[in-house]
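Sanity check record (used in CI):
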Amino acid sequence: MALRVARISAAEHLGFVRGRRSVSFLQTPGWGRVKTEWRSESLGWFDGGELVGAGLVLHRPVPRFERFTLAYVPQGPTIDWAGDIAAWLDPLAVCLKAQGAFAIRLCPPVRTDTWSAAEVKDGMAAPGVGRLAEAAGGRVDAVGSRVARWLGDAGWLPQSPEDGFGVGQPQFTYEIPLAGRTEDDLLKGMNQVWRRNIKKAEKEGVEVTARGVGRGGVDGGAFGAELKAFHELYMHTAERDHFMPRPLRYFATMFAEMGAEDPERISLYLARHQGDLVAATILVRVGGHAWYTYGASSTAKREVRGSNACQWAMIRDSLAAGCDVYDLRGITSTLDADDPHVGLIRFKVGTGGRAVRYVGEWDLPLRPMVYRAFDLYMRRRSR
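Expected output for Peptidoglycan bridge formation peptidyltransferase VanK-Sc:
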């Protein structure tokens, strides 16, 4: 199979995405317009005249080497990873090197291992088990294992840290399968704490509303006010939980660009109790895959369980929309009770579902000297 890689239009790329059941939202043309600090382009793989694969590539120049770029393909590209990997990735490397890329960074949307909620819980309780990879059980994905071996043999360099939670895309995620299930099935799969908190929110009268951008746009009308309210709560959450927040303009761009691509692509969920905003979240959906992407919660009135109410509303809406998966996004690989990050997986495992390990991020140096200079720069900056 001889494939050709060439630039495609955003319309061609979007048409390809719409023809697939599941494509990461990070591989949509709209996401490229959200990441304003990067230069984005859509590339297509052609078998003769037929478009058979697509990828969003984000380019970033290197300090002091501005004519060269790191070509980043987050959670992509959308190709046949079960096929001849060299036939897909070799022409990509040729294309991007000709454009001035000094390296390619891929994050293949391919899983290598899966653990059920019960297996994760057992791992937490088992003596001597500190990480997911050490937990008993789990299922190995043959395609993912093959992709990881091929990348290593072909000279690609793994970039994901041991805990799987670095500056790029998380290698470990948590998700709830939805296909073939009912709301009752999903509630039964949750632990007692989650079911109790959902009922508590209902009993306390927490009301959750979902909003898309609508005709008024992101800056005007009701949506603009709601987005501002979300961001104020998000800033409060960032200060409380000690993380670096994104500006309001980032979220405005996110809703404007992704909402223009598909009016059902992105939604804002707001949980209120007696008029007070107690929690807010953002849901993104592409085909049969839905993602919880951002969340915020009030320190006051935590007892009314607004965050659980938001999550349950997003899960129900994803199920009603016919989604196959509700994705709670990143977790670390730790199962150590003394690790401060274990609370994240403990919270998500309560929903039922499963923990997933992906192939992770990999670099292919195309210009080794520039790549070494970039690697040194990044190591110094992280100190």
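The chain has two domains: 4-107+361-381, 179-323. If this sentence no longer matches the regenerated tokens, the check is flagged for review.
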